[in-house]
# Entry
Amino acid sequence: MVFVTGDPQSAMVIRRAKRVSDFVGAECFAVAVEKEGEGLKRHLNFARNLRIETRVLEGEDAAAAIVDFARRNQITQIFLARPPARSWLPAISRSLVQRIVALAKDMQIVIVSEREQDQDQHERGRL
# Structure
């Protein structure tokens, strides 16, 4: 299962989840828990084009809705985008990703982040 948001990283996470599901021969779901926004709509359509079943869940607690859906559908892996660094928030404020990880102790959580090229290494390669 891949958690889809309007964030541009969602497309990368969808591709990764699809590759893994194809490799292991498993069904893949793309799940969102928010109101339709332009970015979210685009990512859900991208998932549908890859023949991934999509769902938009409702619930006050997005993390609980995602984990509940995963359990009800016997999902063993959840793919999430790496949350942006938010060092200004108090330590007690947990991100959605952290809450999902805490609730889904019985599942494998895959946090996907963009590969960033080391700028120095990139520049040295041109010299």
Observations:
- Residues 117-127 have pLDDT under 50 and may be disordered.
- The chain has one domain: 2-126.
- The longest strand covers residues 77-81.
